[in-house]
Specification:
heterodimer, A: alpha/beta, Alpha-Beta Plaits, 2 domains, six-stranded mixed beta sheet, 11 helices, 14 strands, elongated, B: abc type-2 transporter like fold, four-stranded mixed beta sheet, about 70% helix, binds adenosine-5'-diphosphate, binds magnesium ion
């Protein structure tokens, strides 16, 4: 279990994480979804003990990370955002070192090294130096180093960034396997589809704050049954706002000179009406997209911006 | 304890996989030793021909190649200007040891502190002579960097004058020279490239000069000095690799991790010390009165240097700054510490300074041990000092590393 209470982290006065609280349970994949710079890595760093929180507390199982760091740290496995491996050592020796760092010894350590090599699909490359590996293989080994000591809590920081599609599928399966075995998994990502496909519950993070949290169903429910209609072209944002303000079931989500986003119930039927209204303000619409309710439309509605920036 | 040993084991494995570096650390002092043999004691004087294609024609380039035509190097190195094509052909014909290409803009880059590169084509058929040329160039470039930092102002003036054809006018030279002088009479001894400085060393003519006794202990200390410098940079590698962050979040923590790294470093340093002592005995026929004590002393000196240099490394702001800083410390230590040229041949103000350097101190104690006249009190005090350095330095290094992330 991970319990984060009112966590706050400032870097020289700049707030990176602001009053973040959540709880992740055993056997669950808890997602932290947010764009670059949202504070995901900082949150993970405060949980792992790499960073010292400015305020707030973190507990791993029953252990407070600040007060009982050894007990808390020995129960955690960490897969950092950047691959962290000894390039000049064989895969096997990398795993063995991290196994020993967490107190495994002798035959037990050797057994775990073999098992993890097998799990991450590198059984036949165990004796090869990491520098000869492809990016995807390094990512998998990086994951393996985080689970070699069978942690009860696993922290994953964007483990699929820059990974080829095949390795990515494999990594996501590995994460599910861990949760299936009862591990409490915290998974950060800026890929909405990944969060939707993987996480049991999630929190959406922006500018260091949690702006929405819950199960996938709950989050989609917040979005209502309305579709997201995005128009691009050139607009007078205020005129568009006035034009649609009285229309039943249509709400402005974001409006700018080049982009307008609207939440619309049953958008496909009402698209002609909306386009007529918007064009009536003197706008030139170049492109129209309609998106079904999703995390992305929720994110855009909550923050007024695209997730991928 | 487990984490400590695991860290040490991991580092030793990494060192083993990087054995060329180990060879280099052993090799550099042997090379310097070999050079000194050639200069002072060797009976046959092989000559190296260095071909130079100077496309830059800057002052920096002329100084660089000028280093080869001074002092003892002039005895074994001929410098000759060529065009690259001709140079390559002559190397192929076995007519030269190496071809140095100074690219256009080299001098300007060096003066501005921008990355400057030289190309050295070595004659593959020769081993030692090209290596000597390369090592000398390396040292000259390091020295140039240190000089640039120290003498920023007068160098800026030279730089401003670089566009002029030919040599700078006397007035400029005079004013710059005056400024160099002011910038540090004392610093001069160690700042000038060793190749130039070696010129002043003359073996005493009347008494028989025992090369081994004079230089062998110095070479051992020098090997440890270079090796500790190299090993200490590994904290930065670990930081770059991201493994340092991983180590911080283990239950063992970064303090144990650093201790493990030092343990591995101590083992490697001790190995090189042992090889050195054995080589001294069997290859150079040097009698060592108490080899066991000499070994323990060298291992202690090695780990102390490693701890001190690790501290210097982590105090720097970046990996690049750390490398410059550590070299700026190592170079004068090596020059002053009695390894390159014996205390007996130094001016007295330099001797006082040199004997106070850690490596100079280590060398004096080692010489006493080799001569069968160890100084138990000084050795005991040193051992206590080393332990204090390990504990205090370890604490500081750990704190500094923690401040990088938290
Ligand atoms: N060491 C640091 N010093 C100063 N600011 C930092 C540091 N690390 C992160 N930040 C800032 O904190 C915010 C959150 O960063 P981060 O946690 O890395 O976001 P994410 O992982 O979601 O991309 C960003 O604005 C980033 O610029
Ligand atoms: Mg991040």
């Amino acid at each position: 279990m991970i319990q984060v209470d009112e966590l706050r982290k400032e870097y020289d006065g700049v707030v990176a994480v602001d009053d973040v609280s959540f709880e992740a349970r055993p056997g669950e994949i808890f997602g932290l979804l947010g764009p670059n710079g949202a504070g995901k890595s900082t949150t993970i760093g405060c949980i792992s003990g790499l960073l010292t929180p400015t305020a707030g507390s973190v507990r791993i199982q029953q252990y407070d990370v600040a007060r009982e760091p050894v007990a808390a740290k020995s129960r955690m496995g960490i897969v950092p955002q950047e691959v962290a491996l000894y390039e000049d050592l064989p895969a096997e020796e990398n795993l063995r070192f991290w196994a020993e760092a967490y107190g495994l010894r002798g035959e037990r350590a050797a057994e775990r090294v073999r098992a993890v090599l097998d799990t991450v699909g590198l059984a036949d490359r165990g004796n090869d130096r990491v520098e000869t590996f492809s990016g995807g293989m390094k990512r998998r080994l990086n994951f393996g180093c985080g689970i070699v000591h069978e942690p009860e809590v696993l922290l994953l920081d964007e483990p699929t960034v820059g990974v080829d599609p095949q390795s990515r599928v494999r990594l996501l399966d590995l994460v599910r396997e861990q949760a299936g075995a009862g591990v409490c998994v915290l998974y950060t990502t800026h890929y909405m589809e990944e969060a939707e496909a993987l996480c049991d519950r999630l929190a959406i993070l922006d500018h260091g704050k949690i702006i929405a949290a819950g199960t996938l169903e709950e989050l989609r429910g917040k979005e209502g049954e309305r579709d997201l209609v995005r128009l691009s072209g050139s607009f007078d944002p205020e005129a568009v706002g006035r034009a649609v303000s009285d229309v039943e079931g249509v709400e402005i989500v974001a409006a700018g000179p080049e982009q307008v986003a609207l939440a619309v119930a049953a958008a496909s039927r009402r698209l002609p009406e909306i386009l007529t209204l918007v064009s009536g303000t003197g706008a030139a619409v170049r492109e129209t997209t309609v998106t079904r309710p999703s995390l992305e439309s929720l994110f855009i509605r909550l923050t007024g911006k695209e997730l991928r920036e | 304890m487990r984490f400590l040993l695991a860290t040490a084991r991991k580092d030793l494995l990494r060192l083993r996989s990087d054995w060329p570096a180990l060879l280099l650390w052993i090799g550099i002092p042997l090379l310097v030793g070999g050079l000194l043999v050639l200069v002072f004691g060797g009976d046959s004087n092989p000559r190296a021909r260095l071909l130079v294609d100077d496309r830059d024609s800057s002052l920096a380039g002329r100084l660089l190649t000028g280093g080869f035509s001074q002092g003892p190097l002039a005895e074994i190195v001929d410098v000759e200007g060529v065009a690259t094509d001709e140079g390559l052909r002559r190397i192929e014909d076995g007519d030269a040891s190496a071809l140095l290409v100074i690219p256009e803009g080299f001098g300007a880059a060096l003066l501005d502190g921008r990355p400057a590169s030289l190309e050295l084509v070595k004659n593959p058929a020769q081993t030692i002579l090209p290596a000597i040329l390369e090592a000398t160039l390396d040292i000259e470039l390091e020295a140039a960097e240190v000089l640039r930092r120290l003498f920023d102002e007068p160098i800026a003036r030279i730089a401003a004058d670089e566009d002029r054809e030919g040599f700078p006018p006397d007035s400029l030279v005079a004013s710059v020279a005056a400024e160099f002088n002011r910038a540090g009479e004392g610093a001069r001894g160690w700042l000038l490239p060793p190749a130039i400085e070696l010129a002043t060393v003359e073996p005493p003519a009347e008494q028989a000069f025992d090369f081994g006794r004079a230089f062998f202990p110095g070479m051992l200390i020098l090997a440890l000095l270079f090796m500790a410098t190299g090993l200490s940079a590994d904290v930065w590698s670990e930081r770059r690799l991201g493994t340092l962050e991983r180590a911080i979040v283990t239950p063992g923590g970064v303090g144990t991790f650093v201790a493990g790294k030092w343990l591995a470093g101590a083992a490697a340093l001790a190995l090189v010390a042992a090889i050195g002592l054995v080589a001294g005995r069997w290859a150079f026929g040097i009698e060592i009165a108490n080899p066991a004590l000499a070994f323990v002393w060298l291992a202690l000196v090695g780990v102390a240097l490693l701890a001190a240099f690790t501290l210097v490394q982590v105090l720097a702001k970046s990996e690049r700054a750390a490398s410059v800083l550590v070299n700026a410390v190592t170079l004068p230590l090596a020059m002053l510490g009695g390894s390159f040229f014996p205390f007996e041949a130094m001016p007295s103000w330099m001797v006082a300074l040199g004997k106070a350097t850690p490596n100079g101190w280590a060398l004096l104690r080692l010489r006493a041990i080799v001569d069968g006249d160890p100084e138990p009190r000084l050795l005991a005090v040193s051992a206590i000092g080393v332990i204090a350095l390990l504990v205090g330095g370890g604490w500081l290094v750990t704190r500094r590393i923690r401040s990088w992330t938290s």
